[in-house]
Amino acid sequence: MNESSPFNNKIVDILIENGVIKSIALDIKSSKEYEEFSAENLHVSEGWIDMRCNLNDPGFEHKEDLLSGSAAAAAGGFTAVVCTPSTQPPINTKSQVEYIKNKSQGLAIDVYPMGCLSYNMEGKDISEMYDMHLSGAVAFTDNKRSVVNAGLLNRAMLYANGFDGLVINYPDDVSISLDGKMNEGIVSTSLGLKGIPALAEELIVSRDIFLTEYTGGKIHLASISSATSVQRIRGAKNKKYRVTADVAAHQLLLDESYLMGFDSNYKVKPPLRTKADISALVEGIKDGTIDVICSDHTPQDVESKIKEFDLASFGIIGLETSFAAANTVLAKEVSLQKIIDLITTNPRKIVGLSSPIFQEGELANITLFNPALKWTFSQSDIRSKSANTPFVGYEFIGKALAIVNKGKFIKN
């Protein structure tokens, strides 16, 4: 599935040899013996890319490492991921960027590191952005540490303009969100939990849009979760500001009511919002306000999650379930092509990567999937080192069946 391909929406055979697409035709016959892969309602698209996940290497390998993270990505249908700099130490220098690139060379998926926006993600000084850019960093972010210093973000955006760098900010005014545990509202009040107001997100969204206008730069807003944020981003795009945004797949499927049982696997940041917020997010996807769907894969070890809700860490794993969760919600709302664009063309364009070419003689970088398959996610489907997910036992619609990338063929 690729609107620019002459084979888009056509039924064909694809012959891949040594990782190269040798032939694309209606019916391929060959005297050689090849491993054949076929499935009911089998669809093929350019390889999916997850624009934001935590792979935790170096420093937190007990939660995830590059090998286990790549296995989780492949299981979810991704041939590429963009990983955050939330490691120990944070990805702060060109040598640390090169460490990620070099260590991931032998993996089946492509790994593109992001560098810190501020030094050590401390929010005080700009990091070595240009040096990291030259070494292969595709964007700059402090991940879930929102840049609250407007002057710092202003300088970073102006500096990034010089090499067309991408600044990514997670919108969260910590002076408003404080130590909240879930969305502020009726449910948080009934549970007696400290709330995180949507206002904390919306204030930073508005500020970052103003900075985009002032600097003439570009910014990507990560993990949008509120209806008002969608509205303000839509307004910025109507004014042709260089603003893009993503939403985590689980935010489209789960709302705050799931926390009634105090299950820490539903404790995420941004917090699960209301059904009205979810409807606004879906509308934002439909009209192009939201550009990308991410996994926001955040592995946490058992000790970080199996404790009192107040003390449990934020985050869930998502690489194995990202497409399935999004497709389950969106299948009746938008075209399949739209869903695929949200995890292929759009994210690659935003981070400045070229899309794989689907034609004879090119290296195969493809995902094979069934968008209508009903299946139940189980413990055995988890490839991550961590198992902090609320989706075990959940029935999804749509499943990745295999990937082909870098000469490797991986079946689920």
* Average pLDDT metric: 96
Spatial strand arrangement across the major sheet: 7-8-9-12-13-14
User: What is the structural class?
Assistant: alpha/beta
- Name given to the CATH architecture: Alpha-Beta Barrel
Q: In CATH, what is the class?
A: Alpha Beta
Low-confidence stretches: none
User: What is the fold named in CATH at topology level?
Assistant: TIM Barrel
Span between N and C termini? 20 Å
Quick one: overall form?
globular
Q: Describe the biggest sheet?
A: 6 strands, parallel
- Order of SSEs: EEEEHEHEEHEHEHEHEHEHEHEHHHHEEE
Q: Care to count the β-strands?
A: 17
Specify Rg, calculated over alpha carbons: 21 Å
Q: Work out the strand percent.
A: 15-25%
Kindly state the percentage of residues in helix. 25-40%
What can you see in these coordinates?
The chain is of the alpha/beta class and 412 residues long. The protein has one domain: TIM Barrel. The chain contains 13 helices and 17 strands. It is globular. The model has no long low-confidence stretch (mean pLDDT 96).
